[in-house]
Automatic annotation (TrEMBL), chains A, B:
Residues binding Zn(2+): H261, H265, E291
Upper taxonomic lineage: Bacteria, Pseudomonadati, Pseudomonadota, Gammaproteobacteria, Vibrionales
Name this protein carries in UniProt: Metal-dependent carboxypeptidase
SUPFAM superfamilies: Metalloproteases ('zincins'), catalytic domain
Principal EC category: hydrolase
Cofactor binding comment, as recorded: Binds 1 zinc ion per subunit.
GO biological process: proteolysis
Length: 494, 494
């Protein structure tokens, strides 16, 4: 057995443990009764320790060195690169830092669940300071190992190859046109008469509609299922993808759009190449590319007029309301393309969403680089919310800088993925349009060519090439934010 | 840290891995889409290997030796004995056999789910041969390690202390009176006019009724849940017990009685002593004692006339059929105490049930001892079914020798536990009756004293004493099959 093969075997074992952790974590969110939590958390922590020990086994350094000298195919070389990336990420942190972080984050996140509701910035910031301090130590260590700046070293874990220099340029451009675009769209929409559909929409009917749409969007129920959890997510493993949603009897669109979003994530996972199953090179390219698939399904595809023409009668039929004027294609289109600046990121429309991300990016970048401190966050948040979205958040920490779980969890460097995803998605759609008449295909309910394009250019590429190359090979160019701008102008001002 | 403490810590780690395996195994039966099976089986086999490696770590032999010399409390001594029993059981098998078995059983069981419906004995027997071959290897190794016969060495894992010599004697006795008893009961019941309730009984109403009864029987929903699987079982962990059932729209009693049965298992698990959580001494005493709890709930308690007086109006109300003459207490009592030889063990009444078990015991004992082969099973099955229950099963593998999940799963030596359980349950009830008026308590819907008795004498005893001692301490005598015979005569001929 070659050393490359030994490394493959090793990583396939790790993937098997990840498989069980994934399913148990899904269970924890979607199935587990509350009294099971303490023992479950301990059991999962034990598995994490075993996985970490395996992932950092001392003999791996030599195996990597010897594997590099072996004769490998192009794909095997990519595979080796990805294995090494995973190894380096796991290996670089000292065990006591990992443990301290785990404790600080779990303390901070747990307290945050109460503090957020109490608007208790003072209490929260005490815990967050500890998390930031440890994250800075982590970033410094990762920075030394990679040669990247501290923040970039964190970013690199979620979006390999992305840097704050690139993001600064991208987001500086967005900031030149986004506020004006929002104003123009708001003006254009002033006289739209949008009806809010009035519930109740029974949950079993919402579920039936969700399953129907998932089927139409090609979700493979032989390899996945839909359930309910407090915070919707896409989990499980490629052969068994678990997506969740949360139903609200008063409003069916939020669960439905959520399901479509998670279906995009799911199809990426279900479409990953079997040949590379269980290896890092066979996993999703990055968080941004993952988000591009969910946003392609949700924003590019399903909020298009032609798709809503399909969705609306399905909804009307499922809820037995064929005469409900709120469920016409026209009204559902108005509803699903309504633009309104708001406090909450997860509730934001696709036009104002980038503003939420840029704000968070600018704050967390400076925080990790040591240019600002935790105490500076509220003022910066207020200033930027006012500047980007014209909203006043002063004193409202609950719906301001305390709204997201990311920072309390210690996930710094993740936020940019959301807007990168929106940009990638728009760029994929623009490229697809050069090859086929997408609008006609949707009208004809012939989605297969669209899915085939994504499968060929994104899903089956997994991590076989880096993000730049994936974009160039599929769209003819590197990341170009103009496509998102064009999409927004065309949909909202066209 | 003493060596005893080190052993405790080690076993608590093992229990954490078992926790995850339990949940993933429940998921596999109750949630997983079929396409997820191959990868899941491999992932679980990997975890089994890791657990096995941990359970057989070379330093344990020395730890056990040193722990034996330490000063231990009575309970710690029992704990050490049980840890050592688990260790011996695990240690004796080579890792490659364990992995081969895990894979072969998982393959056989998965294929069985389809093959059984197709009456495909040929296809099934090919997989089963492999399972039997590996089980014989296992039995031989265990036999050499314990000095027991190969079959007894398997039996000992489920029912420590039990032997085929004891079973042969017990079952020989049962065979002297059971056929005649069945005939007498059948004659007595000839003129009973039993009405079969006519469906449909909507599944959501059956589920509501099941949950209601579980609540009344003290199931703790903060630490467990009810779901659906093809083959009902009780899984999960004591802090999160997962029971399953299977609903039939045409017949609500089978799911309901199944739920009551599993609730008995669940209460044992939920009632195990927290102080010993994660240690072998804190787990259920044996499969037979486990079954005694499910059968106590199902047979001793819930099929009693007084309990059916509670059950019947609840069912009538849930199904909105208060005037249905098939749902009166009188008719439901007749229905739930109806004795009729049938093909299916899990559908059998408590009188004919032991015949099903004795048949399986005799076949699997001879199979493991090498006196017969897989190919001989159908003919033996047909002959014994004819002899014990007067039924013809020729060519009907689906409802014959392919009906049970045990053999495909590689669980040989398990079947006797069912009838031992019925015997223990009858013995517990007889002892309880000496301390309280059980029938009055049920009439008054005051189940708590009954549960308290079980909690004190069985649940909280876990594996702190062996089965003989548990029986003697709780009932004043060792296993005595006369109590089952008395129970059957009293209920069915009284």
């Amino acid at each position: 057995m070659t050393f490359y093969q030994k490394l493959e075997q090793h990583h396939k074992k790790l993937a098997k443990l990840d498989h069980l952790a994934s399913i148990c974590s899904w269970d924890q969110a979607a199935m587990m009764p509350e009294g099971g939590n303490a023992a479950r958390s301990e059991a999962m922590a034990e598995l994490a320790v075993i996985s970490h020990e395996m992932a950092t086994a001392p003999y791996l350094a030599e195996w990597f060195e010897l594997a590099h000298r072996e004769s490998l195919s192009q794909e095997e070389k990519a595979s080796l690169t990805e294995m090494k990336r995973v190894w380096r990420n796991a290996n670089v942190l000292p065990a006591d830092l990992v443990e301290e972080q785990s404790l600080a984050c779990s303390t901070c996140e747990h307290a945050w669940r109460t503090q957020r509701g109490n608007n208790d910035w003072q209490g929260f910031s005490e815990n967050l300071k500890k998390v930031v301090e440890l994250t800075r130590r982590e970033a410094k260590i990762r920075s030394e190992a990679t040669g990247l700046s501290p923040y970039d070293a964190l970013l690199d874990q979620y979006e390999p190859g992305m840097t704050s220099a690139k993001l600064d340029a991208l987001f500086a451009d967005v900031k030149t046109w986004l506020p004006e675009l929002i104003t123009q769209i708001r003006e254009k929409q002033t006289h739209d008469e949008v009806m809010q559909p009035v519930g109740p929409f029974p949950i079993d009917e919402q579920k039936a509609l969700s399953l129907d749409i998932m089927q139409k969007l090609g979700f493979d129920f032989h390899h996945g299922r839909l359930d309910v959890s407090m915070h919707p997510f896409c989990g499980g493993v490629p052969t068994d993808v678990r997506i969740t949603t949360r139903y609200d009897e008063a409003d069916f669109t939020s669960a439905l759009m959520g399901v479509i979003h998670e279906t995009g994530h799911a199809r990426y996972e279900q479409g990953l190449p079997e040949k590379w199953a269980g290896l890092p090179v066979g996993t999703a390219r990055s968080m941004g590319i993952h988000e591009s698939q969910s946003l392609f399904f949700e924003m590019q595809l399903s909020r298009s007029e032609n798709f809503i023409d399909i969705l609306a009668p399905l909804a009307a039929e499922t809820f037995n309301r064929i005469d409900d004027p709120a469920l016409t294609p026209e009204n559902l289109t108005l509803l699903n393309t309504r633009v309104a600046p708001g406090y909450i990121r997860v509730d934001a429309d696709e036009v104002t969403y980038p503003a939420h991300v840029i704000l968070r990016y600018e704050i967390e970048r400076d925080l990790i680089e040591g240019r600002i401190e935790v105490a500076d966050i509220p003022e910066l948040w207020d200033r930027k919310m006012h500047e980007y979205l014209g909203l006043n958040t002063k004193g409202n920490f609950t719906d301001g800088c305390m709204q997201d779980i990311h920072w309390p969890m210690g996930s710094f460097g993740y936020f940019p993925s959301y807007t990168l995803g929106a940009m990638y998605a728009a760029q994929f759609m623009a490229a697809m349009r050069k090859e086929m008449n997408v609008e006609n295909l949707i009208r004809e309910r012939n989605f297969q060519p669209i899915f085939n394009w994504l499968d060929r250019h994104v899903w089956k590429r997994a991590s076989l090439v880096n993000t730049d190359k994936l974009l160039i090979e599929s769209t003819g160019e590197a990341l170009n934010a103009q496509h998102l701008k064009d999409h927004l102008i065309s949909r909202y001002l066209g």
